[in-house]
């Protein structure tokens, strides 16, 4: 469905930001 695509793209972008911040936090520790 057309409505599912923007939500999925938003989820992917949020997941990438979350994973990158987690990696940076672990690296700083």
Would you write up a description of this structure?
- The protein is mainly α and 29 residues long.
- The protein is 86% helix and 0% strand.
- It is built from 1 helix and no strands.
- The protein is rod-shaped.
- The model has no long low-confidence stretch (mean pLDDT 85).
Short description:
This protein is mainly alpha-helical and 29 residues long. Helices cover 86% and strands 0% of the residues. The chain contains one helix and no strands.
Jot down its keywords.
single chain, 1 helix, mainly alpha, rod-shaped
Strand-pairing-aware structural class = mainly alpha
Based on Cα principal axes, name the global outline.
Answer: rod-shaped
Spell the H/E element sequence: H
Computed Rg: 13 Å
Helix content: over 70%
**Record field, number of beta strands:** 0
Please outline the major beta sheet.
none
DSSP helical segment count: 1
How large a portion of the residues is in β-strands, by DSSP E? under 5%
Oligomer designation: single chain
């Amino acid at each position: 469905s057309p409505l599912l695509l923007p939500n999925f793209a938003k989820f992917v972008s949020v997941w990438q930001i979350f994973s990158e911040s987690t990696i940076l936090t672990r690296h700083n520790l």
